[in-house]
Design brief:
elongated; three-stranded mixed β-sheet; 6 helices; disordered N terminus; single chain; 47% helix; five-stranded antiparallel β-sheet; alpha+beta
Amino acid sequence: MKLRALAGALVVIVAILVGASLYVFRSTRELPHDLAQDGRALLHELGEVARAFKEGTLTTSFVSYATEVSATRRLQVASVTTQESFERKDEMTILWGELSLPDVVVEARAPVEYTYYVEFDKGWSFALDGPWLVVSVPALEFNTPALDVSKLTFVVRKGSILRDEAAVVEQLRLGLTELCRRRAAEHLALTREPARRAIVGFVETWLKDRFPDGGQYRARVVFAGEGATEPVR
């Protein structure tokens, strides 16, 4: 009886050992396959931006995203509201230029809002530079300035009873649109860096939203007509 019991116990032990060996062997065979699967998935996630760049779909993805978010074909990147002052000096002579009448100087004052944008259709290009995505964008443009006519005032700074001051004021009023456009062009230099930062934020948000590895890249924006710029953070 003891021999039979011992033999039975040995059979059970051998069966357990064989089963464990088969499990270990099977697990060992499946492990490289699982690791390979995980590795391929990791490489897929880490290479999305680079792959899209090589396949030429990066720009297409960006334009699609930009149109979806902004609902226009342009990206507004800066807005400036200032209290503007425009002056007009009017000179006049009579008697075939022999006699000069007193000058009239009038001034117009009003708040003016200037908005600046870049067009999507005028060419955006992307280049990978390590962890940087260098974005070349069109030059800044501006909308027609919005002058607040409800707060528009005119002041005659220098007048004369010999001159028609109202006519000079009217001439200034008619020229305000063009004067505002000139002032908008003068403000371009002041708005370029805030606009650059706005575009950097827009592009980096797009990267994070559209690509699993997008958060690993930072954007560097270069406007048309300027050289490569230092990273703006």
